[in-house]
Amino acid sequence: METQSQYQLEYVEKPIMPIALRPLKDSHINLSEPTAPLSSQTTTRSHFKPWHSARSQPYAELPPVAGHVLFPGSSRSFSTSTGSTFQPFPKTSNVKPIPRLENRENLKVSGSMDLRTMYRESYIPHEPLSARSAPTERKDKSKEEKVYTRRPMYAITQTSVDYRPYPNHRPSPPADMEPFVSQINLGNSLTPAVTKSQYRTDYAGIDTSRYPREPAALPKDKKPYVAPIQKMDTMSVTQRDFQPLDITALPRIRLIPMRTTLSVNDKQVPMESVTTSRYHFQPYDSIKSNRKYGEPLPSIYIPPTSKFEGLTTTSETYKGQPGQRARAYMPEIKMINQMGEHDHRTNYRVDYHPHGLTLCAAKAYAMAQHKQKPTTPISAQ
Fold it and tell me: Are the CB atoms for 169 and 135 separated by under 8 Å?
């Protein structure tokens, strides 16, 4: 039986190049001990040793020895629906096309250019004909010979074969049919239909002819209502607390009447143009310079002739002291003690023990043939 798949045949495993280890930088090495050897042994590499586990037997696939015994009459066929539907082109050339060197300034395509697309060929514009007219044959137009520079594409799909468009006419309208006749009998059209809802069925109501309406409620003394003669007191708490003031006792304020708005034609009164900014920020008068010819300008920098004093307050206050050079914050490289045995058991493995797995018949038969032992304990159920 062939065990290689199409994926394994097409994608061949490439060899993996070894990992290139970069050397350490000079800044990572302790410069105070130049004779100390560099150790590449780490804690992880010493604790976790690499191991090569045996290949596990798959549970889904049956062994080839017991296949005909457990399931007689079965065959393994790798044919799929996609492989049977989409067949490769017969007699296709595997020769690679040679690129043709063309001039960059004058690129031309050999042969005639066909601008017809599959959409234009499939969907033809409808002609203004009646809905029930007979289909007319389409006149054959001049066909140009197609010149292919490469193998033509097989553009016929399964959808275009199953759903073919109408050739030259619109689809005919559906045939006339009798109107739909309802199966619900509502009675004669002259008699009113019974329209009784579920609410009216549950709550029938009271027949006022048999049960008259009760009279209006009256007080215990059974005296009829008489409108009051006295006026209702409308004095509220706000009106009582906040009484209006008497302005007749206040002195009279003399008001000076203002002039009415000036008309547009009145040009004798000057316009008020003084604003707050103009009032507070007065323009300065330009100062005339008294500089004579040959005098230096104040904007030109003239270097001093005397030497610049380089002493500052910080340099005089804080004096430097010789100290030890700062070292990089890195852990010291120490050799690992290889004496004794290491306990690789964790708390999880100590607390939680495996309960075992039930072994199926096919797995037991395969293990008996290969003389293997289960890695986990198996229950006796």
Answer: yes
Has this prediction a pTM greater than 0.70?
no
Give the amino acid at 360.
C
Q: Are 100 and 107 in contact (CB under 8 A)?
A: no
Nearest to 146 by CA among 115, 112, 109, 108: 112
Question: What pLDDT was estimated at residue 155?
Answer: 80
- Tokens 């199926």 locate to 360
Residue 149: left (phi > 0), alpha (psi -120 to 50), or beta? Answer: alpha
Give the contacts of 362 (CB within 8 A, at least 6 positions apart).
Answer: 62, 63, 66, 70
Q: What secondary structure letter does DSSP report for 111?
A: S
Residue 137 Cα to chain centre, angstroms: 53
Asked whether the beta carbons of 24 and 38 are under 8 A apart, the reply is yes
Which tens digits make up the pLDDT trace of 174-227? 788 887 776 666 555 555 555 677 888 888 888 888 888 777 777 777 777 788
Q: Are 357 and 379 in contact (CB under 8 A)?
A: yes
270/273 Cα distance (integer angstroms): 9
Q: Compute the distance between CA of residue 212 and CA of residue 268 in angstroms, rounded to an integer.
A: 92
Contacts of 187 (CB under 8 A, 6+ apart): 193, 194
Which alpha helices (H) appear in 57-173, and where do they start and end? 67-70, 81-85, 118-122, 158-162
Q: pLDDT of 273-300, one tens digit each?
A: 888 888 888 887 777 777 777 776 767 6
Give the count of beta carbons closer than 10 Å to the beta carbon of residue 366: 19
Per DSSP, the residues of 255-307 read -PPPPPPPPTT--SSPP----HHHHHSPPPPPPPP-PPTTPPPTTS----SSP
Average pLDDT over residues 112-134: 73
Distance CA 179, CA 177 (A): 6
Longest dimension (CA), the chain: 130
Q: Which one, of 54, 113, 140, 74, lies nearest residue 374 by Cα?
A: 54
* SS3 state at 373: coil
Radius of gyration of the CA atoms of the chain, in A: 55
